[in-house]
Amino acid sequence: MPGKYGFLLLFLPAASFAAADVTFHKDVVPVLQKHCQGCHRPGEAAPFSLISYKEARPWAKAIRAAVASRKMPPWFADPAHGTFSNDTRLSEREMNVIKLWADGGAPEGDAADAPAPLEFTSNWKIGKPDLIVELPSEFAIPATGTVDYTWFAADMGLTEDKWIEKLEVRPTARPVVHHALVFAREPGSTYRADLQPGGHKSRPEREQTRHPAQSDKGAFAIGKSFPGAEMIGDYVVNGDPYVASPGQARFVRAGSHLLFQMHYTTNGKAASDRTQVGIVFAKTPPKERVVNNAVINATLRIPPGAPAHPVSATVTFQHDTRIGGFGPHMHVRGKAMKYELLRAGAEPETLLYVPAYDFNWQLKYQPTQWIGVRRGDQFRVTAWYDNSPNNKYNPDPAKEIFWGDQSWAEMLFAFFDYVIPAGGDPLLVTEGKPAAPSAAP
Description:
alpha+beta; ten-stranded mixed β-sheet; 3 domains; disordered N terminus; Jelly Rolls; disordered C terminus; 6 helices; five-stranded antiparallel β-sheet
């Protein structure tokens, strides 16, 4: 017994000292700079700033709770499957720093102990763009109500083919932009042919695509849903610009249009937005072209009240490649999504599992190493949907739900990137046209 109490006497003062020693400037600011200030600063989408002690102090307990529950920073990948270069999770040490600081009364400490402030700029994160393309006009977002997904078109003004090294999407009214997707539509494409530069279109909320039965047969989006068009960039809260790895770039043809898919959400204040896209072109041709695609299943049919309805989509790669840049996309009934690689004679390999999908965060997951795929390998995506009354975001659990653009309908879109030789055809990987040089790992 004396030994036991002696241990406690030694342990408790050490713990108390550690808590008392943690201060905002010395210990907390480095954590906020690394994980929080990118969004929690003036002009960004987060509801309050965490730059100064005066700004952070009132939120100490809330920060502690959000960190302890891993609600913040947002990251939904199951750590049991894959490692990702853009993982935003706090380490156990960083979480403990926040806990000790909040529990210890959130002391400020000596400002001289703080690291140098981060240099934020209202200018482009990618540096000065070679080309800026913006919405054709200001778009007004009301203070309240629902804004349909709205599409805009703009001419890029390109007179020759170009390689994109960096691309950044910058809304001017970030607090009301849930996400923005940017597509390059090449000349002659039939994709949204009724939408031409200078115009915009919205789809009515009632529109859904109904299939008589649900099928597990999936499809690649390029060549089917996006004929002659490719997603080349996006904006999401907490997201980063596209920056190509050495020797890689995205490709855009001369005469292409940019199509913007804008999802605005009202927040009680009227706003006006004119989203811009900044592009830095590669100075020399790359060895590999990075192509964005998606696995889709538009035949989903979700029964009323179903708490975890599964929908799968399986596709087959027609040529060797490497894949990465995963981006699960569902709507408000989306519950979970899993990406799997199926190889002949091997157990399914889980590349990404998001067990608690959140429509409010359209995150991307970039594997630390691109994943090698061989011709004949299959890509299987399984999504689960919660159409029950227990889903607080569910607008009507009594309805049967089908595919549709609006958030009250549903989608199974599993975005991913893959690589091909710089002069290759993207459809070789998905549609198996005549043989071409391999992009094997």
